[in-house]
Every structure is written in structure tokens, then in C-alpha cells.
Amino acid sequence: MDSLTQFTLGAAISAACLGSKMGPRKAVLVGGLVATLPDLDVLIPFETRIDQYVYHRGWSHSFFIHVIATPVIGEVLLRCFKSLKGHRKLVWATIFLCLTTHALLDSMNAYGARIFWPFHPDPVGTGSVFIIDPLFTVPLMVAVVWAVASARWSNSLRNLLVGSLVFSAGYLVWGLAVQNHIHDRGKAIFAAKGLDVKNVKTVVTPFNTLLWRVIGQADGQYHNLYVSLFDKDEDAVVYTHAFDAALVACVADDPEYQKMIWFSDGFVRTDLVDGRIVASDYRLGLSPTYIFRFAIADYANGASSKIPPEPILPAIANAGTEFGWLGTRMLGQPMIRASEQALVDARHVTGALQGASPQKIGDDCRAR
Questions:
Q1: pLDDT band, very low/low/confident/very high, at 364 (cuts 50, 70, 90)
Q2: 295-323: b or e for each residue (b if 16 or more CB lie within 10 Å)?
Q3: Residue 137: which domain range?
Q4: What is the distance between the alpha carbons of residues 278 and 280, in angstroms, rounded to a whole number?
Q5: Does residue 193 sit within a domain?
Q6: pTM tops 0.85
Q7: Residue 29 vs residues 11, 34, 100: alpha-carbon distances, Å
Q8: Other beta carbons within 10 Å of 43
Q9: 265 exposure class (CB count in 10 Å sphere: 0-12, 13-18, 19+)
């Protein structure tokens, strides 16, 4: 999640647990700072930019590291704040919660976190909550601001803090439940349209838990579905993205490319952009605005040469149109996404969208 959300979550936990002992303002500051500690791994120098991408949220997000760090941080706090004397167990429990809830929240994004390192080195990422979600963050922020504005501890403040934490936890459970429901619907839609998909992943779209992107991998291509909780499945539109086998073959043995394959569980596409082969993690972001894109090779006349990975910043095209589409689709209203219109298979357009006549292209998606 974003840094503000992580600070706010830790601050709310600390204020709820320690506010009556050390005062709500100090508790907010302590919890917020502790909760940001796992993200200090961004200061670690990595060999390549792809290393920075795949190894972020690594060992510092591991529950096992948090077990080791908790007593160290806890003892520092006990020595810094006399008001905490005699509350060692409570202090340790608070520190552990601030650290582990940070990692747990990150593991619910599609990006994931290596919460079981070193025993399970792969990242865990459900994709059930977007990296920025106001409905999760705002209730916590309201409670934390109230705590900062309160000079003394009170029952009403305690109730607000606990209530905000319960609401936000419930929101995460809601996201997982809706994701599971949409995932099953997405697989059923693929099957109903006669699409043979081998691997299906469902991730939430930006800023909400109503509209979801269901990705179905197939031989030489993948299919995007955008499914709202309020959709009629017969109106579902399939956006088919083809892979360029020649580009994939050029980089298949590149260690940097293989790191991306490992990290994304195989959800990587390659494109030719300005004479360079660009690899993108297509779980993260909406085509063609992928969040993590790296130029990894020069390409000319059918031959490639490796280059140091260079990140390519996403450029949001037609932002107004995109937000309009997002709002319309969240509410279950059918609408073809302009940024992928050229990739619609007209055979899979039915119901309310039939007759929209989207422009079709062939198998070449490299212009992306």
C-alpha cells in the first residue's frame, strides 16, 4: 500500500493499544514510524533496476524477521517512555502488530510481499485491494487525526479507533470474498465463450473493489475481462492480447527477464518500443499503462543485444476517458474500454454491446 496508508494503519493500532498509557499523540507517532520501517528496504542499493523491483518488499516484510525485530524495538521504547514501564507484553504485541499488518496489507496487493521469507522465498500477493484505496484508508485517517487532536485519552477515542480498525479489516475480508466470486464468474465467462485458458488471475482495478480485471492466459496470447459485481455476464467483453513469439525468444534466456517471470508468476509481456524490447508485468496497471516496464534489449533486423534494464515510466493517455470508463463499469454499465478497443474480438461481443463495431487489428500488438 501507499506510505500514507501504512503510517495511518500503524498509528491507529498503536493509538488503540498504547494511547491510554503514553497519550494518544505519542502513540500515533510511535505506531506510524514503526509501521514504516519495513519499507526502508528501498534504501538498499540493488545491482539493477529489475532487482529493485523484484526484491522490494523482501526480507523486511517477513513475519519471521518481525518476530526477531519486535523485542529489540520494544525494549527501545520501554527505555524511551517511562509511562510504558510495566507494560512490556502490550508494547511488544503492539510493535509486532504494526510490523506484520504492514506486510499483510502489502501481500493483499497484486505486487505482493515475501511474508514467509526465507522459508518460502516467493512473494505472496492476492490482488484483492488496490495500492491506494480511500475506502480503506479514510476511516483510519479520521480516527488518527482525532487522536492527534486529543490531548487526553477517552472512551470515545478508543471506540473510534477500534471501530475504524474493525471496519478496515472487514473491508479487506470483503475484498477477498468479492475477488473469489468474480474469479469464478470470470472462469465461467471464458468457458462460455469457448476460450481455452490455462491460468486465470483476478486483480482489482484502481480505487475500488467493485470492478475487477480477470486475466486468462492461453497459448501465444492472454485475454482481459473487466467484470463488475453488478455486471450481466452475457455483456462481458473479451480483450485479446497477442504475444510476439520472436521478441519472447530474443529475451527468454536473459536473467533479468527470468527474474520478472519468477516475480510475476509468468504474467510478463514483451513489446517493441522505439527499437527496444520492453518487458512489462501486465498484472499491475491497465493496458497499455503498466506500472513496471523495463527496456531490456535493443532490437534491429531480427537480432537483439542486451542492455542494462531501464525503467519506462507509465504515461496515462486519455485520463478523463479512462476514469469515465472506470466509473461506468464499476456500476455494471456496459462500455468498451477505449484503450483496448482495437483488441476486442467481435465474436465475443454480445448483449448490450452488440453492434458497437470496434476496430479490429491482427496479431501484432507491438505498437503498445
A1: very low
A2: bbbebeeeebebeebeebebeeeeeeebe
A3: 3-169
A4: 7
A5: no
A6: yes
A7: 6, 9, 17
A8: 6
A9: middle
